[in-house]
Amino acid sequence: MKITSTLLIALMLLCSQAYADYSTPNTSVKWSLNDLVTNSGGNVTFSSGAYRVTGIITISATDTLSITTDEVVKFDSGFHLLVKGSLKIDPPTSVVFTASNQTQGFNGIKFDLSPASIIRKLTLEYAISCNVTDCSPVFDSCIFQYNNVHNTNTSFGNGAMALFRSKAVITNCKFLNNKRAAIQGGGNIDNPIYVRNCIFSGNNTTNQNVPQINLGGSGADTIKILNNQFLAASTSSGALSFAPLSGAIVHVVITGNLIQNNRYGINLQGGSAVNALVSYNIIEGNNTAGNPASGGSGIAFSGGSTTSHQNSIVTGNMIKGNLWGITIQNGAKPNLGNLSNADTTDDGKNWFYGNSNTNASTPGIHLYNNSPEDITAQGNYWGSNDPATVEARIFHKTDQSSLGLVDYSSNVLPVRLLSFNATAKEDRTLLHWKVAAETALDRYEIQRSTNGTEYFAAGVVIAKGVSEYSFTDYAANDQTKYYRLKMVDKDGSTSYSQVLMVKAADKGFAIKAYTSGGNIVAVINSDQLQKLTLNVYDAAGKLLGTTNEVITAGNNLINLDNIRANAGVLFVEVIGSNIRKTVAVVK
Q: I need a labelling partner for 30 at 20 to 30 A (CA). Which of 8, 162, 282, 563 fits?
């Protein structure tokens, strides 16, 4: 058959329509994934229990995409979901956005002027980024993992979450094994985000010089980093860095976090543009590079000048086992404790132990004042009550005349808290803590909160000079609660423990399994920490492989990398404590 030019043009138009990107009609309508299948002209399809996206899908400004059931959505390489309207995700267990081909990945999600997006229980994996521009979505109980694995520098985003003028709220999320930073924002861009009760672990797998959270400014608002865990980043990655550039200003509160086993803990870089409160964190073992020239500080202050000092306060932190406890350079001049003013938020109360033990150049140094500025560091405990020993652990003017003097008077330690943990039962919470050096303590006040901000008294335990204490809070665990210890000295001075979160009791057990890049992935929601055995069978009942996993309470995503997804129908059997459940694998 002879193909005329008219027919050729018609065929080209037909092909272009079949593979064109799709936008919802902007008519203030709530859309579902099935609506996209019906209306997107083949850009969203459904087969074998999973949706597939083969174009850029735009949710227009007045429209909403709503996903309230457990789903798997696979994106082809080069495509993404663009949210100009609203995205509402709230499934029983999980929604997974993943790549059709893990070796190629996909772009991810871009929120652009999105007015009211709320995303819960989403797993975003093998994407470039979750890009958030000029809007403030809420992310709760989400997992961001294996992202940015195919691009190291792209306009779509350099971090697992890339921010641009965003006030995003990020709670109860996990950022795991992403190629670069977990959360990234420009040095001269205001991103006053709120991050609480999240886990950051194993990010920056390319081992570049980026921290797990890397931000610049906040404007007149405040960045809040509360009650998170920053664990085991790559040997070149720090936990937190704030370095405002080009006239940006940052206000940041960093409170109640566990910051452990990173290249450095916290980096605050700049002069009067930096306004920080660093309080009641555990900052421990941050020296993964093992190189004094490239990191190892629990907290590093730098920048500033003789006329531009930081407005940074450090109080109530436990700083131990780092290459240095705190380092100060240039004209940063943080406030590490000032007992001479009426303000009690800067009364020191930091505890230093075991820093610099592996640092051959300056062994045993808790505070290295490598600046010409005099530093106030009153009301802290430096690991000893002997004045000569304390002096030996602080490097300042007495060691080198060009450096500033550190005022470390009023060496105090009401108590040293070694551990603090909580065990939740259905009708009560068991609190247990271990202490040392309880020399002048009067009592422990147990405080409870339901929002992580406002705390109320739950009970009092009198100090008895022993090493272990416990307390039972008889309150039903029908909602998430937060606990902390207020430790009151005999002279009335106080200090606080880190904050513990006790999640509401999660009734039931749910599992979903799907394939991704030839592997089987299981998503398991559990009401308790437990060990599971996962068996994979084909339709004939032949065992294809088995694995053992320890899961935590809440949402868990398990890659069964040792079991390839063969053709045909597959099943995953889960065996655990009083559990034996089998589900089909969605392909």
A: 162
Radius of gyration, CA atoms only, the chain: 26
Instruction: Give the contacts of 175 (CB within 8 A, at least 6 positions apart).
Output: 144, 145, 160, 161, 182, 183, 198, 199, 200, 201, 203, 212
Comparing 416-502 with 510-586, is the CATH topology the same?
A: yes
Give pairs for 538-542: CB < 8 Å, separation 24+.
538/566, 538/568, 538/569, 538/570, 538/571, 539/568, 539/569, 539/570, 539/571
Question: Using an 8 Å Cβ cutoff, are 180 and 208 in contact?
Answer: yes
Please give the DSSP secondary-structure letter assigned to residue 332.
-
Task: Tell me the C-alpha distance between 167 and 511, whole Å.
Answer: 33
Q: Would you call 293 exposed, middle or buried from its count of C-beta atoms within 10 A (0-12, 13-18, 19+)?
A: exposed
Contact in structure between 358 and 331 (CB atoms under 8 Å): no
Token pair of 369 as six digits = 């004042």
Instruction: List b or e across 445-481, with b for residues whose CB sees 16 or more CB atoms inside 10 angstroms.
Output: bbbbbeebeebeebeeeebeeeeebebebeeebeebb
Question: Per DSSP, what are the bridge partners of residue 31?
Answer: 65
Which pLDDT value is given to residue 5? 45
Taking the C-alpha atoms of residue 211 and residue 268, their distance in angstroms, rounded to an integer, is 12
Averaged pLDDT of the chain = 87
Q: How far apart are CA 155 and CA 133, in angstroms?
A: 12
- 8 A C-beta contact, residue 252 and residue 223: yes
Using alpha carbons, select from 160, 174, 177 the residue that is nearest to residue 94: 174
Task: Let me know if domain 510-586 sits in CATH 2.60.40.2550.
Answer: yes
Q: Which amino acid is at 338?
A: N
331: DSSP letter: B
Residue 507 corresponds to which tokens in the numbers above? 């009734």
Q: Which two three-digit tokens encode residue 485?
A: 């210890």
Cα separation, 8 vs 350, in Å, equals: 76
CATH class of residue range 416-502: mainly beta
Is the pLDDT at 19 greater than 60? The verdict is no
Distance CA 138, CA 124 (A): 15
Spell out the domain ranges in the chain.
22-135+144-166, 181-402, 416-502, 510-586
**pLDDT per residue as tens digits for the range 211-259:** 999 999 999 999 999 999 998 767 788 999 999 999 999 999 999 899 9
Tokens representing 167 are 């006030």
414-439 residue pLDDT tens: 577 788 888 887 678 899 999 877 77
Token pair recorded at residue 470: 């416990």
Determine the Cα–Cα distance for residues 84 and 360; give it in Å rounded to an integer: 55
Task: Identify the CA nearest to 120 among candidates 502, 477, 525, 453.
Answer: 525
- Which residues are CB-contacts of 223 (< 8 A; sequence separation ≥ 6)? 191, 192, 193, 194, 215, 242, 250, 251, 252, 253
